[in-house]
Automatic annotation (TrEMBL):
Keywords: DNA-binding, Repressor, Transcription, Transcription regulation. PANTHER family: PYRUVATE DEHYDROGENASE COMPLEX REPRESSOR, TRANSCRIPTIONAL REGULATOR, GNTR FAMILY. It comes from Pannonibacter tanglangensis. Coiled coil: none annotated. CDD domains: WHTH_GntR. It holds the Pfam family GntR. Residues 8-76 form the HTH gntR-type domain. Signal peptide: none annotated. It comes from the Bacteria. Transcriptional repressor for the pyruvate dehydrogenase complex genes aceEF and lpd. This is Pyruvate dehydrogenase complex repressor. Residues 253-277 are annotated as: Disordered.
Length: 277
């Protein structure tokens, strides 16, 4: 992904290249940069210039170094929503509706842009992710399914080729991954939800592949509408289960303990052994 710096070989030129890779989503948070000896060859600069560039990027909070472990792209997403705000939202379930409303709007925008702008590589990646989703459904792999769900929507954001939209979506899905708004496992555990979600992802993909921006936006909105409905139904089912369990515990506490029925052997007189036998 790195290219040779063809003109002025300065630290600023290296910094500009790495920043562009991060901004365009090619380098993701947690990605490890090549080793110094490899990177100097790829960008074609001296080691002192490279080290100066990496130090500048670290000072800007874009890279982090781990002693003996290499240099990584910093976790930039977490700074979009402050920890106090995330904790505040988590304590108020009413924010779930606002979160889903926001996702409906922003994902519709991303899907429409992706239908208009996706490259052949973008379309190939989206198709591969949906194929992997189908395989995860076949093997009943909930954890992989949940991860691929996030990966699919992030890939749509990348295919929209809008840097602000890309990073906004990544921040949005970070909250989803950490379960701040709702548990993906609760959604996937709802009867029929996983198959329905797969079909919805296929519908979004089909509209993007067909370059149908209007259809892609509609498919994205329909997807979030289903998520909203499934979560509400799962919450109702959970509340009913809780009430039923309380009723059962209360009733059992007030009922007498069943007496053990005596078997035919219990009614037999005890056998007395014959001392003369």
């Amino acid at each position: 992904m790195f290219t040779r710096i063809s003109h002025v070989r300065t630290a600023d030129a290296v910094v500009e290249q790495v920043e562009a890779l991060i901004l365009r989503g090619i380098l993701r948070p947690g990605d490890r940069l090549p080793a110094e000896r490899d990177l100097v060859t790829q960008v074609d600069v001296s080691r002192p210039i490279l080290r100066e560039a990496l130090k500048t990027l670290e000072d800007r909070g874009l890279l982090v170094s781990r002693p003996g472990g290499g240099t990584y792209v910093a976790d930039l997403i977490g700074s979009v929503f402050s920890e106090p705000l995330v904790a505040l939202v988590a304590r108020h379930p009413a924010a779930i509706e606002d979160y889903l409303e926001f996702r409906s709007d922003v994902e519709a925008l991303a899907a429409g842009r992706a239908a208009e702008r996706a490259t052949a590589a973008d379309r190939a990646l989206l198709s591969r992710i949906v194929e992997a989703m189908a395989a995860a459904l076949e093997t009943d792999d909930h954890a992989t399914d949940a991860r691929l769900d996030v990966e699919f929507h992030q890939a749509i954001g990348e295919a929209a080729h809008n840097m602000i939209l890309l990073h906004t979506l990544r921040a949005c899905y970070r909250l989803l991954e950490t379960g701040v708004y709702f548990s993906q496992q609760r959604l996937f555990g709802h009867p029929g939800a996983r198959l329905a979600l797969l079909e919805q992802h296929r519908a979004i993909l089909a509209r993007i592949l067909a370059r149908d921006a209007v259809g892609a936006r509609q498919a994205a909105v329909a997807h979030i509408d289903f998520v909203r409905s499934a979560l509400a139904e799962a919450a109702r089912d959970s509340a009913r289960d809780a009430v039923s369990s309380l009723r059962l515990d209360r009733r059992l506490a007030g009922l007498p303990t069943p007496r053990r029925s005596r078997t035919r052997q219990d009614h037999r007189p005890a056998r007395i052994s014959d001392p003369g036998a």
